[in-house]
Amino acid sequence: MQQYLEEDVPNLYNKLRESIKEREKTDETLFKQIQDEFTTVQDRLSEEKRSREEGEEILLNRIKEIRARVQDQISLERQERERTEETMIYLLEQTCTKLNSVRFDL
Prior knowledge:
The chain is mainly α. The protein is 98% helix and 0% strand.
């Protein structure tokens, strides 16, 4: 019993302390790994978000460019149509004038 109290109990106590230290060290290692993984995931999410936002910005700029080109083309076609209509009206007026003058001359 004396040996148990003098040797075995202190040995058990020391082993328990070592076990506690090892568990704490393992816990710290696991905590650090988990933190590192979370940091990695957050970094990837931030990068993905930034890429998506850049892609959306590029897409919006392209849409604006296309819209501007289409509006320019519509404007040019409208101007051309108006010139053509004016020419047609002028020719019709000239024709009507000539027809009226011919009719009265008869």
